[in-house]
What we know:
Blueprint: H1 2-22, H2 32-47, H3 52-84, H4 92-123
Helix pairs in contact: 1-2, 1-4, 2-3, 3-4
Amino acid sequence: MAKLTIGFGILLMLLGVAGFVLTGSTHPTSLIPAGFGLLFVLFGGLANTNDPKKRMLWMHIAVTLGLIGFLSTIMADIQVFKLASGTTYPHPVAVIEKAAMSLFSLIYVLFCVRSFINARIRRS
Length: 124
């Protein structure tokens, strides 16, 4: 799971940089997914250890970050459907970027929950 965390971190960093470039490099808030991605890479690197307690700690911190990322961008999922049906927003790229971050974060959290359940089953 540590490698998956690093992979999702890199994906979010690419999303943030792409959003920054597509907005004309004038909106630094478009780099927020890159900040989340940097934290994912850091936590994934720290979780890449043989010590099961440390691995469990860092993976739980990473999945909590993923949940925060999902919950903080969930409104963008609704906005992207409105955008597709013709509603205009001042920064449509930002709406799409937040919706992508929401989707990526949700997928990551679901992978982690599945992994945590499987680990618990293996322990018993």
